[in-house]
Amino acid sequence: MIFQKFRELPDNPRYSIWLEPLWAIPGTIVLFYAPLYMKGAGLSDIQIGLINSINLYFAFVFQMFAGAVTNKWGRKRTSLIFDLVAWSVPMFIWAFSNNFWLFLIAYLLNATNKFVTVAFNLLIIEDVKKQQRSHVFAMMNIIIISAGVLAPLAGGVISKYGIMPTLSVIYFAGGISMTIMFVLRNYLTKETEAGKVMIEANSNTHILRGVLQSFRLFGQSLRDRQILPILLITIISNIILQMNFFQVIYLKEELGFKDQMISWIPFITAIATILVYSVVMPRMRNQSDEFYVKLSLALCAIGSLLFLFIPSGNTVMLCIVTTILAAGMFLLPTYRDALLMNRLGKYEKADMFSSVQVVMSIVAIPWGYISGLIYAYKPSLLFILIFISYASVIALAFPMGRKTRRLVEKPLMIGEEE
Q1: Would you tell me the crossing angle of helices 163-188 and 11-19 to the nearest 10 degrees?
Q2: CB atoms within 10 A of CB 260
Q3: The pLDDT value given to residue 176
Q4: pTM of full prediction above 0.90
């Protein structure tokens, strides 16, 4: 069934899915071990939190221009330029980072990935049928998560050679593989139909006017009862993601799990995700995107609660909690993002998606630093807050119905009414 759905997709998502492992394999490993890598370089919890907050601040600044730049330059061109700036260059810097300032520079460059978030998501779903979009997001997420099966291998190498030399090599090799992927994907994909229209419509439009357009549309969406809940869920779940940055440090320093055991977490996550997509979801095929969003939030809340009760060094409980969280955290972005995209008009996706990301960024800015402060004060308190956040956001999902808002069928310019 998965392969049949894959073959039915247009060229852009098919080529992108094929090439995604070149990013996912090194990216998943280094992102998982990034907190320990930074600790190994001598950074304190406060410094790590500060870098996260600075990264989020600049991500907010870049995000304000992402929709306008994507409309003016096109989805394809924007993806290539900022993938190279946000990932290729930082990966090589991270490979040699051994102090606060090198990490800071790399994370500042990485903040430009907000341009990619808008452009790439539109590149892979704009020319896809509405009912296929959740499958595109699901396949991309599965590839990224499935790369975690290699984490135990990385953990074994780390145990033998140490975290710093091992990850330095993975960062450098990842920089090479990601660069190859970005160039090859740009060659194989084509600009979307909506992208062509927006490039022409915005050819003589200043980028600042495009930024104003994004916020005008976002302001209108806040009055839409069908869109508001999914916007709030998207924003709050992003804050929770920032707070979860210290999870791997907590498992090692507070619960006493060894590096080798911690390296199995991405593997368990990958297996659980594959089973959810290939076994569980086909048996629930008649359910709506709204249902899966509600289910995912419930699983995340249950998993976060159980996380608080993992006994020190108890691998069985760790595996159970990891499986529950894996299912929830796979379903949430997959169906949350598909639901949001399907509720946006054909020509307003770039502006609206960008403005949503802007609000996500500005709200999340202090949470990198706040998380570091909370963790430094009392580590378990941070994860209690995560559970409370998931439990609270479940209430936002209940008003979501199946109706969709009226779609914009032509590109809007500043001052023009729908």
Answers
A1: 160
A2: 12
A3: 98
A4: no
CB atoms within 10 A of CB 249: 18
**pLDDT, tens digit, for every residue of 221-255?**
666 666 778 878 888 888 888 888 889 889 988 99
Specify the residue for token string 């903040």.
111
| Identity of the residue numbered 382 | L
Question: HSE on the CB side for 315, CA within 13 Å?
Answer: 10
More confident residue, 51 or 355: 51
What's the pLDDT tens digit per position in 255-282?
999 877 888 888 888 888 888 888 877 7
Q: Among 22-31, 77-86, 289-298, which range has the highest average pLDDT?
A: 77-86
Residue type, 328: G
For residue 77, count CB atoms less than 10 angstroms from its CB and return exposed for 0-12, middle for 13-18, buried for 19 or more. Answer: middle
How many CB atoms sit inside 10 A of residue 298's CB?
17
pLDDT in tens, 345-358: 666 666 677 777 77
337 or 295: which leads in pLDDT: 295
Residue with tokens 């069985």, as numbered in its chain = 316
148-171 burial, b for 16+ CB within 10 Å, e for fewer? bbbbbebbebbeeeebeebbbebb
